[in-house]
Every structure is written in structure tokens, then in C-alpha cells.
């Protein structure tokens, strides 16, 4: 049995998985803030290990800046922890081998090995939700960069909009699911989620169409820059915004194609796994540990 | 003995190197165009092998789109070849193990293993000459992307300027050494090389200072995007423009720092190897082949 836990800014999703990664048990609970979050992670993992009975390895996915190689959660603004050596802490507590990594890279691992990016040696998996980040595979290697790689959400798209990170013009500030709703509300005075904006586009709402077209342009700008640099064969879009499906993929593929010349043209597609991707990816990492032994 | 050949758009630089990579013999000759270039490469390598007497491996660096993993020169607009399987052709002709790769990645290999990027597991080595491209190392891995990785010169910096690639606003179109001279001439009606523009900046020429400041902004835009995505610890600038030294590095470091927030801040530095980097890198690849046996 394998224990997997995906810690999000809002909730933690845990699972006991069979060696074939079938879900034997699952739990979901809120993520506390600060030091309490560290204790909650350790407690939850211990509970899942006990529940599993014969757990052989643990996989943990956490947000923020994460050094997958050292198994350390370096920083998360949302949760408020810093330099937590989860790999060592969990190994000490459970006596099991532990894999720790970034939640986006965990989700990316699921898509790359079992989902929409399967078979590609060069890919980007980009969840677009409250935030935007990328899991990046080049030459078959999942890039970590000491936890700093793949921050496509904090790449400027040349627009004068402040970002929560302190920067200006970040992709996340204008093209996250949250930003799409915010920009629509600012334009119209009417609150809407990104999903509602997408629905309004389909109904012919001109304001929604304008916001959507701008969003496509921002995403196209960032994807073109990423394509020049890392040359993915496939780009997988996940997260809340990906629920728009072809309304997103169609115009985004066209926009991106219009920005590329000799570059390799990536195929755009929607993620296979929903919000279970992080848990599946953490489970895959844990299984890798066992197979390496 | 190792034979190394660096094929540029204008000239080919060949060398016979000792196992310690000391230069025992060297040659330089013009690069012909089209099919003749393929023959010239094969001839020159054969000559160097004969000259070496006891050559044990060959390293070849070529421009354009190059698949280092298959040893194939996929495309070079400058030279005019397409899908040349150099690794197999040279191995057949010489009976020796052959490493083939991109000239920028060869130069990058020299800087990463023996030069300015030594010791860093995440780095960008960016020659800025007639063109601009990057050798990109992430987690200690030199990224290839089937030959398409590292094309930072063909990333848009959001300006309305046509590029030779057919795109608009590419970094190379406004910030290569050639582009700096071209933009100064357009502004003033006076021809100047990038080196002359740099000298004029030092002398207080206002037009040169304006062109230089814009160039720094374009480079800062692209480096910030690359930093968000691949998180280098060090960025090495090479090529003609790097001869400006601190006049380039000082303001570029400041510009880049102003664009970053939580991102890892890369150290900027000038390349150690001049135009011999490609040959040294090709020699390192050839030596790697021998060590792997």
C-alpha cells in the first residue's frame, strides 16, 4: 500500500493507494495556517499509514517553493510555513521511505505518466486556477531548479497590472481563473467566476467576449515565450479555467500558432486528471521510491 | 588525442586536443553553403583525424536546429543544410566515436564545466552576437528539446519590430550586437557596430545612451521571463556584445533585479571563453564519449 497526501492552500486530500494506484481509502480536511499546518500534515500522514495497515511508502505534494530533491517545503505564502524538512520529519515518524515535491509537479507527473502528456519527452502541464504555474519536462526530465522552476504565472506579459507577488504584469495577475472573474467585474460592475464568464461568452455577452479575448492573448504571450525556451511537444492546461474546454483551447491554439515561426508547435490539450492529479502524482513518486529499491 | 570542429555560419574552427584539452593543432577555414558545407565538414574532420595520428574521438558543433541526441543537423538557415546525420557520416568515415551538438550548447558546455558557470546546477549561457540563443542547464542537465530548446532570441519582448525568423518583436531583432548597430544607425543616420555604440555611451553620446538603455530593457525583459521559467543561479553573457563588460552587466543586473520578486536572483557574469568556446565544448563532448566506454 502507498499513502499519498496533496496539501492545498484550502484543503488536504489524502489517499491510501494500491500498488496499481487504485484508491483504497480517501480523506479530505481543511489546511490550517502556519505551524499548525505542519502538525496537521504529519498527523494526517500518520493516520493514513495506520489506516493502510501495510503502507510501504509515502508521497507528499505541497504548494509554494519546494525543493523536491531535498524534500523541503521552502516557503508557502498561502500556508505560511518556511523551510519545513517534510521528508525527514515523516520518515522519522513513520519509518517509511518518503517522496516530497511541489503540488504542481505532482499533478504534472500524473498527466505526464498516465494522462494527457503521456508519451511526450518535452511537455508543460499548467494548472490555471487561483494561481498559475507549470510542471516542465525537458528531455524526459521533470525540472525542479531547487523549487524555483516553472513559475510561468510570474512571467510578465507586458501589461500594467499589479500582482500579489509584488511584481507588475504577471500572467497570474491577469489570466488566472480568479483574475478573469476580477477583470470582468471591474469592466461591468457585475461579479462573476471564470466559469460564469466562459458561459457568458458562449451566450454572446460582448463584455465577456472582450475579457476572454484579452485572456487568450495574455496566455498566448506567455506560452509563446515558454515554447521558445523549452520547446514542449504538448502543453496540458488544467485547473478551473480548463473547464472551458474548446472555448479556451481553440482560440489559444490559434493565438499561439500566430506567434510562432520556426519553433516547434506544441499540441494543446486539457488535463486528464481533475483535482486528484496531485494525489496520483504523489502516489507515483512514492511507488518510484519502492521500485528503486 | 581528440578532434574538435566548431562550424560557424562564416568559418569553421578545428582543433586537435590533448586528453587534457590542450590545443595541439588548430585550423580555420571558411564555411561553404549548402551541400558543399557537408562535404567540407567531413573533409576537415578527416584531415584533423589524420593530423592527430592517434585520434580516439571526434566532437562536432554546428549551428541551427540540431538534435544532439541523434547527432543530426536538422536545419540551418545560414548554411542551408537539412537533416544531415553527421554523427553517422563521420563515424563511418573515421571509424571513431562521434559527438554532435549545437554550437551554442557546445559553448555553454565549456562555460558550465570549465568557465564562468562552473559549479552551478542551473544556468543560462547566452552568446549575443549576430544572433541570440541560450544553452540552458536545469538540475545539472543540458536541455536539448530535440534541438529546439533555448531559443531565447526568438522570444518576443513586446516591441513592433520584424525579425528574420518571420516573427515580430523577437529579442534577437532588437538586442543582438547586429541589432544594436542597426538601431543606432536608424536613429542617427550614422553607421556603427555594437562595440562602437558601447564606446559612444562611455563618451556621453546621448543617442548611443538611449539605444543602450533600450537594449538593456529588452534583455532584462527576456532574462526575467527566462528566470521565472528555468530559475538559473547564474546567467553567462558571451558573444560580441559581452565585450562591453560592466557597461552591459551593471545596468542589466539592476534592470533584471527590478523585474524579479520571489524568484531566485541569478548572478550575471561575462563568458570566460571567447570564440573558442564551441571548440572546447565539442572537445569535452568527445572526451565524455571516451570516458563512458
UniProtKB/TrEMBL annotation, chains A, B:
<dbReference type="InterPro" id="IPR043129">
    <property type="entry name" value="ATPase_NBD"/>
</dbReference>
<dbReference type="Pfam" id="PF00480">
    <property type="entry name" value="ROK"/>
</dbReference>
<dbReference type="InterPro" id="IPR000600">
    <property type="entry name" value="ROK"/>
</dbReference>
<comment type="similarity">
    <text>Belongs to the ROK (NagC/XylR) family.</text>
</comment>
<protein>
    <submittedName>
        <fullName>ROK family protein</fullName>
    </submittedName>
</protein>
Amino acid at each position: 500500500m502507498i499513502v499519498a497526501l496533496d496539501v492545498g492552500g484550502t484543503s488536504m486530500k489524502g489517499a491510501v493507494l494500491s500498488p496499481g494506484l487504485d484508491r483504497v481509502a480517501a480523506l479530505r480536511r481543511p489546511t490550517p495556517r502556519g505551524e499548525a499546518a505542519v502538525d496537521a500534515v504529519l498527523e494526517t500522514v500518520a493516520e493514513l499509514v495506520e489506516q493502510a495497515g501495510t503502507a510501504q511508502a509515502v508521497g507528499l505534494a505541497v504548494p509554494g517553493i519546494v525543493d523536491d530533491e531535498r524534500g523541503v517545503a521552502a516557503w508557502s505564502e498561502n500556508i505560511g510555513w518556511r523551510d519545513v524538512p517534510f521528508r525527514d520529519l515523516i520518515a522519522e515518524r513513520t519509518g517509511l521511505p518518503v517522496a516530497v515535491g511541489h503540488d504542481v509537479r505532482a499533478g504534472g507527473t500524473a498527466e505526464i505518466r498516465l494522462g494527457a502528456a503521456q508519451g511526450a519527452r518535452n511537455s508543460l502541464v499548467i494548472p490555471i486556477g487561483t494561481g498559475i504555474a507549470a510542471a516542465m519536462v525537458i528531455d524526459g526530465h521533470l525540472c525542479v531548479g531547487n523549487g524555483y522552476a516553472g513559475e510561468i504565472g510570474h512571467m510578465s506579459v507586458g501589461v500594467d497590472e499589479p500582482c500579489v507577488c509584488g511584481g507588475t504584469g504577471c500572467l497570474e495577475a491577469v489570466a488566472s481563473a480568479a483574475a478573469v472573474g476580477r477583470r470582468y467585474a471591474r469592466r461591468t460592475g457585475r461579479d462573476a467566476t471564470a466559469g460564469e464568464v466562459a458561459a457568458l461568452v458562449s451566450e454572446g455577452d460582448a463584455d465577456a467576449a472582450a475579457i476572454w479575448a484579452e485572456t487568450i492573448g495574455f496566455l498566448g504571450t506567455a506560452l509563446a515565450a515558454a515554447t521558445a525556451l523549452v520547446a514542449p511537444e504538448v502543453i496540458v492546461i488544467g485547473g478551473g479555467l480548463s473547464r472551458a474546454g474548446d472555448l479556451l483551447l481553440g482560440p489559444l491554439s490559434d493565438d499561439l500558432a500566430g506567434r510562432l515561426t520556426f519553433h516547434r508547435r506544441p499540441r494543446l490539450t486539457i488535463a486528464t486528471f481533475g483535482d486528484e492529479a496531485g494525489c496520483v502524482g504523489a502516489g507515483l513518486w512514492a511507488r518510484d521510491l519502492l521500485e528503486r529499491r
